[in-house]
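Workshop exercise sheet. Pairs work together: one partner reads the sequence aloud, the other fills in the structure field after running the prediction. Swap roles for the next sheet.
Pair: D.N. / O.F.
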Amino acid sequence: MLYIRNCQVKTSGIASHYLQRLHLKYNSILSLNKNLLISGLVGLVFSLSVAYLLDSFSTGIFLNSTTTVVCGFISYKILFSVLFYRDNKRNMKNTSEKVNLHVLRQVFIRMIFASSIFDVINNASRFSLLLYLLKLDYPPIQSAVISSIIASVLSYVVMNVIVRYVHLFSYRN
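Structure field:
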């Protein structure tokens, strides 16, 4: 059954089965992207506030770029770890509700791998774009927003291609 605005609508068996298969197949990837997006937005807001504060206290563009990227990275990484664990903790338990150490190790390795891909591409491209835009005399906040958006889009595309290519979320018992 599918509920739309308090009305009950019956879905055909084929469509319902197809949607369930899609949900099961892409749930981990969608969850990962959701976690990256939420933590990335929090990191962006935090780095914008740091860029604003550094603009009034410092004039060195290298120091501004480095501090802005590092502060955004730390806030992003902490929130991403919490969100990723929360979404995957049900996969770590076996039927007796004890933590399955084998699956916990697999999830931890996957989190490190997916996060590392995203971090390397995001931070390297963001830092270089931020430094370039500050050299062109863009305001720090505008530079931080532009570099963050471009770096995030590039990171999401590359990470999703790699995650699909290496079958990162196929569990083996």
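Discussion prompt: Residues 13-57 form the longest helix (45 residues). What would you look at next?
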